[in-house]
Amino acid sequence: MTIDSEENRLPCGTKVARKLRARVPVNSLTMNQRKAVGIDLGTTFSAVAHIDAYGKPQIVPNSESERITPSVILFDGSNVIVGTTAKNNAMAEPEKIVDFVKREMGKPKEQFHREFSGKIYSAEELSALILKKLKLDAEKYLKEPITDAVITVPAYFNDAERTATITAGQLAGFNVLQIINEPTAAALAYGLDKLEEDQTVFVFDLGGGTFDVTIMRIEGHHINMIATNGDHRLGGKDWDDSIVNFVAEEFDRQHGENPLLDLQSYQELHTRALSAKIQLSSRPQTAVIHHHSGKSVKLEITREEFERRSQHLVEKCKTICEMVMQESRMTWDKIDKVLLVGGMTRMPMVRALVGQLTQAPVIDDVNPDEAVAMGASIQAILSLLEEERLSGEKVLPENTRDQFAGRDGGLIQVTNITSHTLGVVLWDEAQLEEYVFPMIRKMTAIPATAKNSFGTAMANMQRAVVRVVEGESTLPGECTPLGICDVELPSFLPKGSPVELTYEYNANQVLEISVEACGNRAKVSIERNTGLAPGEVAQAIANLGSLRVA
Length: 550
Ligand code: AMP
Fold this sequence. Notes:
The structure is a single chain. The protein is an alpha+beta fold. It folds into three domains: 122 residues, Substrate Binding Domain Of DNAk, Chain A, domain 1 (Sandwich); 223 residues, Nucleotidyltransferase, domain 5, CATH 3.30.420.40; 74 residues, Actin, Chain A, domain 4, CATH 3.90.640. The strands form seven sheets. The chain has a seven-stranded mixed beta sheet. Strands 1, 2, 3, 4, 10 and 11 form a six-stranded mixed beta sheet that branches. A five-stranded antiparallel beta sheet has the order 21-20-24-25-29, with no helix packed on it. Bound molecules: adenosine monophosphate. Adenosine monophosphate binds next to helix 6.
């Protein structure tokens, strides 16, 4: 642990104790009857599911009667339109459109924002508008207010991205019960009826903007996450862009002009490329026509050529799959089933990759677009049941409680693991350099708590600044800084006095920190250098309240 000035550094020193223990998450809302949904907040599409009167997860259609809603926002003055209408307008009014906002989650406003009618919107606020539309439509369909939600995130999302997703849910008016990993949700949806068959499942989740692989073990009523890896900037859009670039190169070759410099032209071409990509999943060839500034180009694209041009993307997926196998210390023959999630897994080249990696059968009876939301809706009921158990207050409809609690052998239990190492920056007195000490290592079962004591470097140190980082490296520069905790120390501490640092990683994989020096224990909030600052949240609620979302 180092502190703010050189004179006040704490040495890497004296590790006193380290302990990991499980902790049960507690939720504080105490209202009577509640209605919870599961939400797959996707890069390109989002979906909502709930548990019906028979205890089964069901997709909740939106007000356009669609089972999935494009995660696209159209700003039209104080009206905000989310979904297909916005998507269809992307070509005509690209300057009024926001899409792929999931890729920006966790970034501070200075790094990512969009401005409409003089107002600035962060990634959380934009995501909140998508969630608001999903909430309003679900309330209309189910004819009751929705109070709670479980929202899914890629397993590989980091602390900043998870925190931003929780904030987005709250801004949309949800009590966010939990943030769960998309592959865990898919495994829940898949596993609900198969809990008696012990098996190891490889979840391959390639969506519109993110790629996640997770190894899960289903054993009795336990679903345990064994390992996870991924790339949150690898997804369908990259395959779309390979077609976009192919057509743009041809346009440039024929007309000496880059059609991508014009936003409208790019949007048009992207829409055509996406449709060509989907066609190439079932046809050996297709054609893309693109018009721009009075000129046009027609390009025949074969599946073979498309696959050649996007081979590097499949290679990236392959590397990540191999990395997760290594991390889990497993071999492919130990995988019993492959669960494909995300629309991109319909692509033949992706299926071919999976077949090349493992002979394990692919599970086909789960809809890759809907499984995640359905699994999240199951988790929502599990979370509320846990709340009922802890508080003694009944908040679920009786039939739902009976159907879930009454399953043979008891409730489903899900154990997740951390997807990144959480560390603290320390000062190495011998080497005279900073390094990262891992407090909670990647692949630790969560919720988890880790405690370590470090000695003060000198007498009468006034403050300690705990620098919290996330990442696998021991070099601070190679990790992602999460923020700092600035802690006042008691006066007149002798050199080497123990300062105990506790990292608590909750079920949402969001970190809380406390510091204890000379018996004074203080919970310190991390001043995150990501996402919305606490003071900006009230402003964001006011901002969003003035918009009409449909
Ligand atoms: P998701 O985020 O899971 O909804 O995945 C959406 C992504 O899957 C988008 O990039 C879609 O273009 C892509 N997708 C959906 N269906 C197909 C298909 N049949 N072939 C290729 N890509 C598809």
